[in-house]
Each structure stands twice: as structure tokens, then as C-alpha cells.
Amino acid sequence: MTPETVDILDPDLYLAGAPHDRFEILRREAPVYWHPEPAGRGFWAITRHDDVARISRDPTAFCSGRGLFIEDFAPGDMRDNPDVMIMMDPPRHGRFRALVTKGFTPRVIQRLEAHVRELVTRLIDEACARGGCDFASDVAGRLPLTVILEMLGVPREDQEQMLDWTMRFFGASDPDYRITPEELNTVLHNMNAYAHGLAEERRRSPKDDMLSLLMAAEVDGEKLSYREFGGFFNLLLTAGHDTTKNLITNGMLALIEHPDQRRRLLDDPSLLPTAIEEMLRFSPPVYYFRRSAVRDTEVRGQRIAAGDKVVLWYVSANRDEAVFRDPHTFDVGRTPNEHLSFGVGPHVCLGLALARLEARVAFEELLRRLPDLELAGPVVRLRSNWVSGVKSMPVRCARRAG
């Protein structure tokens, strides 16, 4: 296989996990590679760690506001909403990010630990009572969904609707969730309408939650617009749930598939923080995000024209041989570990402290209570070249610790 024949776009390639052999070819032979699109104008695939990091830190040359996904969407498509913070560029991005940063500081997140542990304990109890469960949906999915909905102030009885919306958003290319662009736009419009229904309730009766914080917020002396408020809600809901679900699911799968590393962690629980960073490196929750060239520029001698799509492949950067020793080895004690799974630069993940807390508490309890958790059936991955999702991961509670 040569760079000219390498395809990293086809979602079917990701059904067995990321196609690391293909990314390795590109890192070695064509780290800045023009990749054709069957129904698009093509894009630059950026696969080395230092290039991904440098471009991420340079919003003046590579902007976010022209699209996050490889695909170009038709005008009016809700997936291409410039009022979603993750698609904003400085200085507007900084002003909007400041509105919610106070809700995600390490001090605020740390206060959630006892409640997160209580939730994890309940989920494990329920799984053990049945002798097993679908780990992806019943444990790894339920925990972050419950936490972010409580932070937002969403009633518990609406959880199933929120879950359905997020799965349709992230699974747009999977046959189990696939819907037309028009149907997906309807989903996103419904999410916006739901958010504004809650907003009206907070306007009448403010509470100590994220939506009340956003209701009171102003940017340049003005309240958030309908689209801006809905964009915040959609971003916090989807990013606060699915990425952490992927981290915990893929992390547990890595421990099951690498029993020597699970034993190492059981013997030395102090390794858990480094183990979580290794889980993030080994299986990043998001494979890529896109930037667009603001002006004509060059990367590694390749001329990139203004307007070209530039795709940052975190999944490849995290296996860069120039940065990581034995990059394809899962090592719970790996240090240093400069993975890019949370991004870098202005768009570094807002909820990284929350994700780390949820993962740490989850694995503390899972390793203590279920040290021999094992697969009870095939792992079914999401058909997606964007997120490292697992649809189903049946497990058996082989032994319950006290």
C-alpha cells in the first residue's frame, strides 16, 4: 500500500478499530497528504503529532469557523452552526468560553466526586444483580449522561430522549442510527427547542445549574441569542456524554484485552492516573477535528491554499513513533504521555477535568468491585471515522468484590 492508495475516509475501515497501519504509512511517507473525497473537494490529512499540535495552536492561520467535519454541509445545515462554541474563532471564542469555564474548574469538578462515586456504585450494583450487562450503554454511557444532565438541570425523566438525540448525532454514518440530513436537522432543532423550554423555566425560577448560568450570561453586553443558547446546550450535552462514554468503554476494553496491564494496575492502584492518560492515547474518543486554512501557507513543504480543509488526526498523532516509544503498546505506566486526545490550543477540551474525574472514579470502583470483569460476547463498534464509539460491549461479572 502506497500513500496514493491509502484511504482513511471510509467508515467501514473503523468497524474493527482505527486503521493504524494506514496512518503509519502516511506518517512515514506523506504526513501532509491530500486525500480525495468521493463526493467532496478533498482535504489535507495531518497525521504527525507536532504538526497536529502546531496547527491546533494557530487559529490565525487555521480556523474552526468553516466546519468541524470533513464533509461540507449545505447552507442552513445545523451541523454547521457558527453559533456553537467549538466552531468559533478568537476573539469571539474566548468571550463565549469564559461564560462556562467557571462551571468546569477543577475545584467545582472535585465537589462532584462523592456523587459520581455514588452513581458508579449504583450502576455496578445493578450490573452485578443481573450477572452482567452491556458495559457500553449500562455503565460507561449512563454515568456521564447522568452527570452532565444534572449539571445542566435536565429532569431525570427526559434522559432517554437526550440519549436518543446524542446517539443519532454521533451515529449519523452507522446503519443502526443513520438518518437523512433533513432528519438530523430536525433532531438538532428539537434539541434547541427543548433547551429553550428549560431556559424559560429558569427565567421564571433560576436554579444552581449550568442553564441558569447561561441564562444570566452576557457577551458584549447582550444576552445569548436563540442559536447561541441552543448551541451551548447541544455542545455540553453531546460532548459531555459521548466522549467520556468512549473513554471509559475503550479503557475497560483495553484492560480486558491486556490482562498483564490490568494486573499491574490492580497490584499498584497509584498507576491509575497514568493509566487513564494511556487509555486516552491508545483509543482517543474522537479521531479527528477539522480546521480550514485562512490564507495560503505551507506545512512540511506542502503548499496549502486558503480555504483548503485541514484535518487533524489525533488518532494518528497519538501513535507517532517520533514522540511515543513503542506507540502500539498499551502501557498503564507510560510517562511522559503527551497525547492530543483533549486537543491543545484555544479549543482544548473544556470538560477535561470532568472526564478525568469520571474515569478515575469509575475505574477505582470497577477494579475494586469487579477485578475479573470479562467479555460475554462480541464488541460492536460504531461505524464512524469521527468518533471511537462502541455500540455494544456485553460483559460478565465474574466475581464481585466487597
Automatic annotation (TrEMBL):
Segment forming the signal sequence: none
Listed GO biological process terms: cholesterol catabolic process
Record-linked Gene3D superfamilies: Cytochrome P450 (1.10.630.10)
Keyword Flavoprotein annotated: no
Alphabetic keyword roster: Heme, Iron, Metal-binding, Monooxygenase, Oxidoreductase
Domain of life assignment: Bacteria
MF terms in GO: cholest-4-en-3-one 26-monooxygenase activity; heme binding; iron ion binding; steroid hydroxylase activity
Record family assignment: Belongs to the cytochrome P450 family.
Name the record gives this protein: Cytochrome
Organism, as annotated: Sorangium cellulosum (Polyangium cellulosum)
